[in-house]
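Bug #77: duplicate submission created two jobs. Keeping one. Sequence:
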Amino acid sequence: MPNWFMLVLAIAASIGVVVLVVVLRDRRSSEEEVDPDETPDVIEYMTMMIGVVYAIVLGLAIAGVWEARDGADATVRREAFALNAVSERAAAWPEPERSRLRAAVEEYVHYAVHEEWGEMASGDGLTGQGDELMASINAVVGSYEPKTDAENRAAYAIADQASAAEEARDDRALDAGPTLPPLVWFGLVAGGMVAVGMVFALQIQRSPRELILAGVHSALLAFLLYLVWDFDAPYAHDATALKEPFVMLFPRAAG
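Kept job's structure:
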């Protein structure tokens, strides 16, 4: 199911629930029992405080998952550019070492994008085969004995970039899981339900203005919660965008 379709369903469901509750309550209550003028001041104060506190918590959650998503993007870029530098600097090496190194890099990229990414999206993290393919790159780098000064300088640069790629891979393993723990998610969902429920405590009526405001309020909460969910596991929910550096630098292997 596409992410945009899930967002539309979440917003439509939140608005539908608010309208349905208001309609059902209005049918079961008499005019005397549902009088907005009789809403106690303490309920208005509590609604305001709950809204402010929940907005702060939700804002911190969005900031946290956005930072994690941005960090995941930076990690993938570092890994892709480091591997591209390894492949490009191999031009200073003679054959067949140059072809061996480039083939090892492309094999790793192909596996990481087409196979390992799916494991990360499912929450299993990095795979042993990916570790072996990265080790094969380092093995090719370490096995060649430079014969000229140019090859020696290239060897040092290639070794540095290979180490940078391996370090970025390790960082990618740390970013594979969700950012927010289940307890935080429980608080966000429960707080959203309470924030919407407090709207009914204010005894809103079935007038178009009140229904529109209540629907917009619930739709906004649904959208923000969806935003947190989408950024919470970037390798699962935003995989195509994160793969872009590999696809751009290694179109044949990652395409």
